[in-house]
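Office hours follow-up: a student asked to see two folded examples consecutively, so here they are.
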Amino acid sequence: MRRFMYSLVGMALMLCSTAAAQTQAPKNESATNETPLRLGVAGVTHGHLGEVVRRLNRGDFQVVGVAEPRDEYRNKNDLTGRISPNLFYADLGKMLDETKPEVVVAYGSIYDHLAVVEACAPRGIHVMVEKPLAVNYKDALRMANLAEKYGIKLLTNYETTWYTTNQYAHQLINEGKIGELLRINVYDGHEGPKEIGCSQMFLEWLTDPKLNGGGAVVDFGCYGTNLATWLLAGQTPKSVYAVLKRHKPQVYPNVDDDATIVVEYPGCTVQIMASWCWPKSRKDMYVYGSKGSIFQLTPTKMETYIDHRESGTFEAPALQAPYNDSFRFLRAVVRGEISLPPYDLSSLENNLMVVRILDAARKSAKTGRPVKP
């Protein structure tokens, strides 16, 4: 299978030498694999900031600084009252220089991801962004080049990475249990960010075509492209065809609220249905092979049809630490305990492909024709 032409960027990132990292990263002589990860937070407007809040007292990381340029959001956010007021900064560079985090997690707009990497990479500070990697492929390549140049890890976090069902599906596929992959259908969405009560500071950029790169096509379309790239081991698609709708223009006047993306591979068709218009939330996936099928129904429940036998609904095997949690995983990667396999869900090469496909999807929707990514 033909590999994605920019896979060397991701591989170079993973293989960067320990010596280079030591000369570029802020030194913390007392840090060991058991000590808390020194964590910086860039931006507070992303609704997923709760992922940090819920883990604050667990002990595997310590928030050493938070950067947020807007006064009203810096003074009132999910971390307010939970960490010292002295840890909040208006300027990202100042926060990095004074607090010296090992890694920064980005919780601002997707558009801001590039600026975060531009600030962190020359300082040797690793970065994990919330999905997707960037608003467009140009920004994504710039980020990848910076990560390679300065020898930092650049990860992308998805909720679906930590679903036991997705991980077990990947295992079964790699074991050849369902044969050659023929079709993958992915459904991701909910009633809409405003309808489910997202905060105003989140909605401000989530519904902005510049700051988010689009609406549902980006917010939920990235999940399916990430999973497909992983399951198909980084294959380059032959074409991408997309239809973007605005069913609720009075609510979301500037971006799409419903997206259908068809990604055609040499032997497999992937259909991604991403929406802010569904009556209830869903994140499920259906994989069909030449010998069987796998239905990922919830984060923990799934069904299979293997060897002409239906399994019925069952619980997927539990994941072991550090592969069961985004921040335990992040610390293990940064501390060198584990390496990212090629096209891992969090990896740079996977997420470069994700943005490449999303770019093609938006172009297809404008032209009405399939686009070669």
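And the second, which I mentioned at the end of office hours:
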Amino acid sequence: MAEAETQTQAAICSRGVTRDFKAGQQTITVLHGIDVDIRAGELTYVVGESGSGKTTLISIMCGILWPTEGGVRVFGTDIYDLSDTELVEFRLNNIGFIFQQYNLIPSIDAANNAAVPLIAQGMDRLEAREKAVAMLEKLNIGDQAGKLPSQLSGGQQQRVAIARALVHEPRLVVCDEPTAALDAASGRRVMDLLREVAVAEDRACIIVTHDNRVFDLADRILVLEDGRITHDGSEMPEGH
């Protein structure tokens, strides 16, 4: 298949993505020329040992961290050719993020935290809050909508962060350990919701995870070792 055709069909197309970091006088290469397409309509997991480059890779794929070399196309847009303002707008309209640290605003309640992307897009605040509460209800924490983050458990905060990532129905959802703070049943529920909301013909979801309880839900698993993709398949390879 021609390169141009592959790029049109890929939700994310990464070519030659390398990332270096400075550590004193040393240069440490975390990613080594990653070539990979993330296909629309699939739930793609990125797995690997701590320090293998997983979070760095997804951060580059969604325009948070710049590559040292290489480029990334997201739904046909060369995101690193955009201006800073254009990139912020592109992320707002196309990408939902679920971070390990939750990154909730401490001074506003769960519903308003979940409504942030809708408000940033210009939606009326009351309508945005209603949509946010509906998403919180899907995650079984609608009764926590009026509480501040400090009044929520770690698992509840994580579900608020997930609601915020999904509420504006982004074309790409990028998750860093979305089930880490959840029990098995809640983790499965979250993954089912990600599949329902984030996986469609014109959407994609990429997830960094160590959670072997949900490996069976993946359409595709990429194994990263020392900044290189060593496995690309529908199941975890033996020995991992």
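Two things to take away from it. Strands lie at 10-23, 26-39, 43-47, 69-74, 77-78, 95-98, 172-176, 204-208, 220-225, 228-233. The CA atoms of residues 52 and 226 lie 5 Å apart.
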